[in-house]
Design a protein that fits this description.
The radius of gyration is 26 Å and the shape is flat. It has helices at 3-38, 42-73, 77-107, 116-142, 145-175, 180-212, 233-244, 264-273, 286-290, 334-352; strands at residues 221-227, 249-255, 298-302, 317-321. It folds into 2 domains: 3-212, Up-down Bundle (Methane Monooxygenase Hydroxylase, Chain G, domain 1); 221-352, Response regulator (Rossmann fold, 3-Layer(aba) Sandwich), CATH 3.40.50. A 4-stranded parallel beta sheet has the order 2-1-3-4. With 358 residues, the chain is of the alpha/beta class. The longest helix is centred in the N-terminal third of the chain and has 36 residues, at 3-38.
Length: 358
C-alpha cells in the first residue's frame, strides 16, 4: 500500500470513528430524553439539553473533516459516495438531536404522571424508533446493507404504532385524566419519535447509496377516485391517471352507491382508444375499495365529498373535484369530461412531484 493509500484509509477511519461517536451520543440523548418524560425527571432533561450542544459541535467537526477529505484527496467512486452520504447523514443526526431537545423541553413541563396507556405507547414507540436508528447507524458505519434492510423493517413498525398511539391520546383527553399541557406534550413526543424512525429510514438509504450506489426509489402513490355510482366519472379518472402515469403507483375507483354496470359511453370511449378494462371489471362500492390493506395516499371525490363517508386515515389526504367548476354537466361529451379530468390529474401529479417521464 502506497503512502497516499495509507493516508486516505487513515482519514476514512478517522471519519468513521467520529461518526460512530456522534451516533452513539445522539442515541443516548434520545433515550434519556424519553426517560425524562416518562419519569417527569427535569434534572435528566436539563442534563440532556446541555449534552446536545456538544453533539452539535461534533457534527460541525465531522462536516469539516469531510470537506478536508474532499480537498485533500479529490475522491471519486465509492469514496466520494461515502463522503457525500456522511454529509447528508450528519444532517439527519442533527435533526434527531433537535428532536431530543424538544422532548426534553416537554419533560420539564410535565405536571403530573402520564396515564399508563400513554406511558406504554411512548415506551413502545421509543423502543422501535431507537432500535431502528441504532441499527441503521451501525449499518452505515460498518458498511452493512443488510443492517439497513433490518432497520427499515423496524422503522415501519414504528409507523404502524403511531395511529394507534394517537387514538390512545384522544381517549386520554376525553377521560380528562391528564392536564391539557401534558397531553399536548405527549402528542409532540409521539410525533418526534415517528420522525426519528423516518430519519432512520433516511440513514438506510444513505447506507445503500454509499455501499452500492443505489439511489432512493421514486415515491409511488395509491390514489382512489370516488363518485356517486362508479359508472363513469371516477372510472374515467382512473383510466386517465393510469394512461398518463402508469408507473406512479396503484390507482382505483369506486362509487358511494355503485351501479349495476359501467355507462355505455365509458365502454365506447375505451374501445375507441384501445383501452382494455380487466375481465369481470364492474362498479364497486367505496367500502369495498377501502378494504384493501394499505391506506390510500389520496382519495379524490368527483362531485362528492368522500370524507363524509369514512374515517379519514391519518396519512390520507382527501380532495374534492367539482365538475361544475370545469364546465362539465350531465350532458357533456365523454371526451370533454376526460380532458377536464386529465387536467386535474396532471395537476395532482405535479403537486405530488411525479414527473411526466415516470
Amino acid at each position: 500500500m502506497s503512502f497516499y493509500e495509507e493516508r486516505l484509509e487513515a482519514d476514512l477511519l478517522e471519519i468513521r470513528a467520529s461518526l460512530r461517536q456522534v451516533a452513539e451520543q445522539v442515541e443516548d440523548n434520545l433515550r434519556h430524553s424519553v426517560r425524562a418524560v416518562l419519569d417527569s425527571d427535569a434534572r435528566l432533561a436539563n442534563e440532556t439539553l446541555i449534552k446536545d450542544r456538544a453533539v452539535n459541535q461534533d457534527i460541525r467537526d465531522l462536516d469539516h473533516m469531510c470537506h478536508l477529505f474532499v480537498a485533500r484527496h479529490l475522491p471519486s467512486g465509492s469514496h466520494l459516495r461515502f463522503i457525500s452520504a456522511v454529509l447528508r447523514l450528519a444532517v439527519s443526526l442533527e435533526r434527531v438531536g433537535d428532536y431530543s431537545v424538544a422532548i426534553c423541553r416537554v419533560a420539564r413541563h410535565i405536571e403530573s404522571p402520564l396515564p399508563d396507556t400513554l406511558v406504554h405507547n411512548i415506551e413502545m414507540m421509543s423502543d422501535h424508533a431507537g432500535k431502528a436508528l441504532g441499527t441503521a447507524l451501525k449499518g452505515f458505519v460498518e458498511g452493512d446493507p443488510d443492517s439497513a434492510r433490518v432497520s427499515r423493517g423496524i422503522a415501519s413498525q414504528t409507523a404502524a404504532i403511531y395511529p394507534y398511539a394517537f387514538e390512545v391520546l384522544i381517549a386520554a383527553a376525553e377521560s380528562e385524566r391528564c392536564p391539557a399541557r401534558d397531553l399536548f406534550g405527549a402528542l409532540l413526543v409521539f410525533r418526534l419519535l415517528q420522525r426519528t424512525a423516518e430519519q432512520a429510514d433516511n440513514a438506510c438509504e444513505m447506507t445503500l447509496f454509499a455501499v452500492k450506489g443505489t439511489r432512493k426509489k421514486d415515491k409511488r402513490y395509491r390514489v382512489l377516485f370516488v363518485d356517486a355510482d362508479h359508472t363513469l366519472a371516477s372510472k374515467l379518472a382512473e383510466v386517465a391517471l393510469a394512461e398518463s402515469y402508469p408507473h406512479a403507483g396503484r390507482f382505483g375507483s369506486a362509487g358511494l352507491k355503485p351501479g349495476d354496470s359501467y355507462d355505455d359511453r365509458l365502454m365506447a370511449f375505451c374501445r375507441q382508444r384501445g383501452i382494455v378494462l380487466p375481465e369481470g371489471d364492474s362498479p364497486r362500492s367505496f367500502d369495498e375499495a377501502l378494504d384493501v390493506g394499505p391506506h390510500y395516499h389520496v382519495v379524490v371525490g368527483i362531485g362528492v365529498d368522500p370524507s363524509a363517508h369514512f374515517d379519514v386515515p391519518y396519512r390520507t389526504a382527501v380532495l374534492n373535484w367539482d365538475p361544475d367548476e370545469d364546465g362539465i354537466t350531465a350532458e357533456s361529451e365523454v371526451d370533454d369530461l376526460y380532458r377536464a379530468l386529465m387536467v386535474r390529474v396532471r395537476g395532482l401529479m405535479t403537486t405530488l412531484g411525479v414527473r411526466d417521464d415516470e
